[in-house]
Specification:
Blueprint lengths: L10 H37 L14 H28 L2 H6 L1
């Protein structure tokens, strides 16, 4: 937007880009897990509170949390790799600007 030349890719930028996109994927997966647990608790407590099971402070299986975090980290890394290719290597926006 404010660049007069296209951005130059460096190894340090790529590492930081991939770390931040993986962290974003983890945050989104945590948000999905939290919303899912809130929905599950609101439905379960309204029906029958005696049959509620707790797994180490969580209402949903811990394995589901782990799977969501792995999917979030992997998805964030893949998304970061895709956009690194588009923004820094192929420079799609710079070529369309010309």
């Amino acid at each position: 937007m404010f660049h007069t030349t296209p951005p130059t890719p460096t190894p340090t930028k790529k590492v930081i880009y991939l770390i931040l996109s993986t962290a974003l994927g983890l945050l989104v997966s945590f948000l999905v897990y939290t919303i899912g647990e809130i929905k599950y608790l609101s439905c379960s407590f309204g029906i029958n509170t005696n049959s509620m099971f707790w797994y180490i402070g969580c209402a949903v299986f811990p394995s589901l949390r782990n799977v969501l975090f792995i999917i979030g980290a992997g998805g964030g890394f893949l998304l970061g790799s895709f956009w690194w290719q588009k923004v820094y290597i192929e420079q799609v926006w710079w070529k369309n600007k010309k």
